[in-house]
Amino acid sequence: MDSELQQVIKDFKAYLQQEKKKGLTAVPVLVKAVKEGKKPAAIDLSKIMTLEELYQQFSQCQNCPLGRTRNKIVFGEGEAQARLMFIGEGPGFDEDQTGRPFIGKAGQLLTKAIETTINLKREEVYIGNIVKCHPMKNPDQPTMRSNDRPPTAEEMEACIPIITRQIEIIKPDIICLLGRTAAQAILRSNAGIHELRNKFHTLNFAGKDIELIATVHPASCLYDPANKKYVWEDFKKIRDFLKRA
Ligand code: SF4
After folding, report:
1. Which of 232, 215, 225, 237 has the alpha carbon at shortest distance from 112?
2. Which CATH superfamily is domain 47-244 in?
3. What is the DSSP letter of 140?
4. Which of 40, 96, 122, 151 has the smallest number of Cβ neighbours within 10 A?
């Protein structure tokens, strides 16, 4: 049995234990599928050509444990042909409640920085996350604030095909990676954020070379306002790049 199937069975067992507490007694179709060792059918994402189709494909996604505890999936929002795209690590409490990315205090700071430093409106860019469902420290308390945690490597691996296809569909000229987790996941690096930020990286997505720049997560500026200088510095690089390109 390969490790992927073992993980599916482990996750499914955890799900059943959780559901049993809520009174569930049987799930015959799913049990049959797992007993037969069937994996979910692989989807050829390259055939999905629009953000709307992609959303429809994953709006009920249960490909990782985060799907079971989310309130709303946070797919991403903004201009479908944006030149500039932002990618964070995952939704928090406010985002889980509303289904919209970066709308809490960190999101307000991000919006202000986009408008004042890059001179774009929030609606002119696209904002998404590596994982689409809220990672919680305590999943039994989905209505509790300050219950956020970074996504695990497994959760990011399960979800990263969605943001990758979003990038391929939007085809931005530049992507800003918000925080260490998002930067490491997309750049496939173990380096710290201060090693990754303040410079351009180039990756090819479906035939297009796209520039990427990492910066500190806006939430870190709430804990330590001194971090704002890094966001401002990196955003000015983005502004200058957009003027040049
Ligand atoms: S985080 Fe991504 S992979 Fe996991 S359930 Fe949500 S949409 Fe699916």
Report:
1. 232
2. Uracil-DNA glycosylase-like domain (3.40.470.10)
3. T
4. 40
Say how far apart CA 33 and CA 27 lie, in whole Å: 10
Ligand 1 pocket check for 58: Cβ under 6 Å: yes
**Distance between CA atoms of residues 141 and 152, nearest Å:** 19
pLDDT tens sequence across 81-106: 999 999 999 999 999 999 999 999 99
Q: Which atom of ligand 1 is nearest to the CA of 151?
A: 1
Find how far residue 88's CA is from the centre of its chain. 6
C-beta neighbour count of 137 within 10 angstroms? 10
CB within 8 Å of 111: residues ≥ 6 apart: 102, 122
- Residue ranges covered by each domain of the chain: 1-41, 47-244
Query: If you search the block for the tokens 């599916």, which residue do you land on?
Result: 8
CA separation (Å) from 89 to 43, 216, 239?
23, 12, 23
Provide CB contacts within 8 A for 75, sequence distance 6+: 51, 54, 55, 58, 59, 99, 128, 132, 162
Would you say the CB of residue 91 lies under 6 angstroms from ligand 1?
Answer: no
DSSP state for residue 203 in the 8-state scheme: E
159 lines ligand 1 (CB under 6 A): yes
Q: Token pair of 7, please?
A: 């993980």
Max CA-CA distance within the chain? 62
* pTM recorded for the entire structure: 0.84
- Rounded distance from Cα 61 to ligand 1 centre (Å): 6
